[in-house]
Amino acid sequence: MKMINANNPPADHKISAVLLSIYLLGMIAVIAAILTTAMLLQYIDGEIPCQLCLLQRVAMFGVCFSIILQFRHGFSYCNTGLSMIFSLFLLIVSVRQTLNDIYPRPGHEYIGSLVFGLHMPVWSVLISVALLIAFAFQLIIWGSSMPQSMTPLPLLRVLATILCFYVVVIGAVNFISVGVQCGFGECHTSGYLLLK
Q1: Run of H or E including 152
Q2: Beta bridge partners of 115
Q3: pLDDT tens digits for range 159-189
Q4: Measured distance CA(73)–CA(70) in Å, rounded
Q5: Under a CB-based contact definition with an 8 Å cutoff, are residues 194 and 182 in contact?
Q6: Whether 71 contacts 79, CB under 8 Å
Q7: Under a CB-based contact definition with an 8 Å cutoff, are residues 113 and 45 in contact?
Q8: Pick from 17, 55, 72, 45: nearest CA to 178
Q9: Closest Cα partner for 32 from 166, 173, 172, 177?
C-alpha cells in the first residue's frame, strides 16, 4: 500500500484542491455580488428591506461564512452541511415571502423593484435551489476523495483572502445598517428608525 505524504500530496490531489477552491470561490463571489446589488438598491434607490428580506440576507451571509470556514480551516463535511442548512433556511424564508406576496393586495405587495423581471424574494427561491444543487454537485464530485487543504496555489489563497475579507466588510456594513433601520424594536420599511 502506497503512503501519501501530507507535506507533498500527489498531483491529482493538488488538482482536485485547486478545482474545489475555484468552485467554492465562484459560489462565494456570486453570493457576494447578489448581496452587494441588494445593498446598492437599498442605499442608492432607497429600497429599505423588509423583515423577511433581512432574513434572506442573513441566510446568504451564513452560506458565505460557511464557505469561508472551508478556506480558513480546510475542507470539512460539517461546513458543507452548515452551508446547506443556510441554503435551506433561505429557501424556506423566500418561499414564505413569495407565497405571501404572490397575490398583490394592500399591505402585501412585493417590496422593491424588479431585477430582470423578478422581485428579490422570487430570485431568492431560485438562488437557494441553485445553492443546494451546487453543494450536492460538490459532494458528488469531491465527496469520495476530498482534499484536506483547500488551495495549494498562492494566487488562489490571495484571491480567497480578498473575497472573504470583502464578505466580512459587507456583512459588517449590513449589520450596522440593520441597527440604524430597526433600532432596538421591530424592523419596518418606512425609514431608518435611528435617523428620525
Answers
A1: none
A2: 118
A3: 888 998 999 999 998 888 888 877 777 776 6
A4: 6
A5: no
A6: no
A7: yes
A8: 55
A9: 166
Amino acid symbol at 119? H
Residue written as grid cell 488551495:
151
Go through 167-183 and write b for each residue having 16 or more CB atoms within 10 A of its CB, e for each that does not. beebbeebeebeeebbe
pLDDT tens, residue by residue, 88-144: 999 999 988 888 777 766 655 666 666 677 777 888 899 999 999 999 998 888 877
* 3-state class (DSSP) for residue 118: strand
Query: For cell 433601520, what's the residue?
Result: 181
Contact indicator for 131, 83 with CB cutoff of 8 Å: yes
Q: What is the CA radius of gyration of the chain?
A: 19
What is the torsional sign of CA 115, 118, 121, 127? Answer: negative
Query: What values do phi and psi take at 93, rounded to 5?
Result: -65, -45
Residue recorded with cell 431560485 = 126
**Element counts in the chain: helices (H) and strands (E):** 5, 0
